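BUG: 3D viewer hangs when loading the predicted structure for this chain

Environment: internal workstation, default settings.
Expected: structure renders.
Actual: progress bar stalls at 90%.

Input used:
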Amino acid sequence: MSVTDHTTAPITIEAIKASVDSIGDVLQAASADAEALGRLSADAAEALRSTELFKCWWPAELGGPNATVRDGIEIIEAVAAVDTSAAWNLAVCTLGSGLAGAYLEQDAVEAIFAEDLPLIAGQTAPVGRAVPVEGGVEVSGQWSFGSGIHLASWVKAGVLIERADGAPEPAIVVVPAERVTIDEESWNVAGLAGSGSYNYSMDGVHVPDGYWYSFPVADPKRGGATYRLPIPGQLVILHAGFALGVAQRCLDEITGMATAKIRQFDDASIGTRGTFQFALAENHAAVSAARLHTYDVADRMVEAADTPEAPTLMREMRAAARYANDVALEIATWAFRQGGGAALRLDHPLQRLLRDMFAATQHIYVDDRAYTDHGMSLIGLRPPARSAPAPQSPTGATR
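Structure tokens produced before the viewer hung:
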């Protein structure tokens, strides 16, 4: 039987959302392990695998729910509010598998999804080199930030396919995990340590025809309207959902401490201070506004997927994700300061949330161009075209 022929109904988005609570205790207990390991712990990975969460971005033909962008943001937000490492790994791996399931040719999908739960991690930036050969392409290069790569049975990598009759073609190739080399010394960082975003490389790896799809826009072969969006529009589930979840978790943590936390030389808890009460209410309003704004733009972006308004809404969506990150960082900073000296300890949740949020805001998806490109659209200007980065060799040298 074909892996795309299902005799049972695909999982529903409601069932996936409901599963987060069932593994929350395990994910929180494993947080410290992820920090120490530099990747998601075995217990946390097994907890995620015990649910349908990794399938949340899969097309319905492969047993997924055909999630909307709003659905994806809500799921990643819910997990990030429990554990940041789990949320980042979940988002990367479900996107990796879901995009492959939507865009790869049938033979490739049959091979990959013959596994019970194929997980695909890696980097989309087209910095690798792909040379056409008989039956496929030969890929070489080095990629940074391969989040979740130790979880994955398959790895994706952005490449430029060389064309004798024109400009190189940006694409994403998918290869078995054993065909890549992971640099185990490459992930020593101040935040998001548990994301496991190690460097990896390939040198002359043969990728058969059908095991790659175009980037940033690909033609969906499976799935619903969401997959007709350019790929960067789908990546927002990570960057917006993660930020909203961190913001909510910070507010929950500091609210829980408010009546018990008494700073030195003070007679009452921080919760009795008018300045604390004011800021807490203000920050609740800020994250609620960011959440509603993000959902609104996400819904409008999907509705406009096949219209001339799609590029403008894509830019607005990226700006919304940047705004959610800004709000989350401000809340994490405020909550950390309210936590006092205790929050300096590496095992304190407010310490980790602040470091992870600082790391998340370093991502190119939410850099200053997220605002400037949207600002240009608002005054009727078109942002400039940006060329793809030059391919790299396995040693990192620019070709």
